[in-house]
Amino acid sequence: MGSENSLTVSLEEFGLSKYEARAYVTLVSKGTISASELAFYSELPRTKVYPTLLKLEKKKLVILSKSKPIMCTSISPEDAFDEIVQEQINKVNAMNTLVSKLKKVSDESKKSRGAEEKRYFALDANTVLSQLKLMISATKSSIEVIADEWGLILLLECKEQLLSCLRRNVEVRIIIPSSLIGSELIKQLPDGIKIRVSEIIQNCILFDQIELLLLDNENGKGVCFSSSEILGTNQSELFQNIWRHALKIDSLVDLNKAEAQEIYNLTKVINENALGHVLNITFLSKTSDIDMLKFVEKCGINLSTKSLDELIDIIDSSLQLDGHGKASFNKRSNNITIESRLNSGHSLSWAAILASYLQKNGYKPRIAYQNYSHKGEKIHIKVSP
User: Fold this and answer.
1) Model pTM greater than 0.85?
2) Which residue in 20, 99, 326, 351 is a FRET match for 164, CA 20 to 30 A apart?
3) Mean pLDDT over residues 205-232, rounded?
4) Contact 303/357 with Cβ under 8 angstroms?
5) Closest residue by Cα to residue 33 from 55, 77, 3, 63
């Protein structure tokens, strides 16, 4: 299992998404199997299997049968990746040469700045990109970024330098606004960069917690503060605070923009308002019969039209988004499980949504709550006709 995971991560460097890489590795190891078997062995969400297979077919990595059930077979690795491997080798050689030249330019630039380096220097719009590339190439341990769409586009111009940093185990973290969730820009960033979401309105990049680059998205200009320990420390503390409270987006990477935004909006509604709504209705009406579907619909999110599998996938992605849990459905036992690493009733709102959904579709859900003290909580929902 560990070796397959490492293969999956490696394939992502060839431009495959996590789902595509997982599906291809499974087909290579299992041979010709049906689409449903692929979903089982690769642990892909059922709703993602066919879109993933179609993408792999378009990339000439799998062959799909025309008959039903659909059978899928992987193209042999040597046929699929021969040209790509050679292309990567050429790119690595070119990047190594580029890094050596950039390092030389960076060293000479730092020497020439002298005392100026301890203060700041302004950058016009024409030199911002070249300076950004130099600073990324010279980074030794960490890059902390807060960026809007314009800042992200600028970073993508430095993709080769970012890849070099990642190969040197430099930690790269980026905080983006919610408007960029599901954007193709995110999918173009190199794998290995950690991304979270927060509502922000600035463009700033901190290198090794010392050098700070501030960017103005209106005129393209920038200001660089070099070797400023006080300013760097303050900015790093600000970044760490935003990062701790920001939402993870790993579970949304393979979704389109509309799907990703829907899950993000739902997560915000549940985290900010749902538990208070549940407690308020219970207190005022003295009843546990709470229509959570109606509540989220008033917030602009319609879950009634989803299938049960789709709804569980949405809840699972939402729980992963805030980094506190997951949801799963065991169809053999007809049991839905919601897990949370928090133990403050965090999962109750999600259970209430599922209970409302099941009741509206003619089921009689039975809910069991377990609290594991410091280890979190777990809710089991038995789906009974």
Assistant:
1) no
2) 20
3) 83
4) yes
5) 63
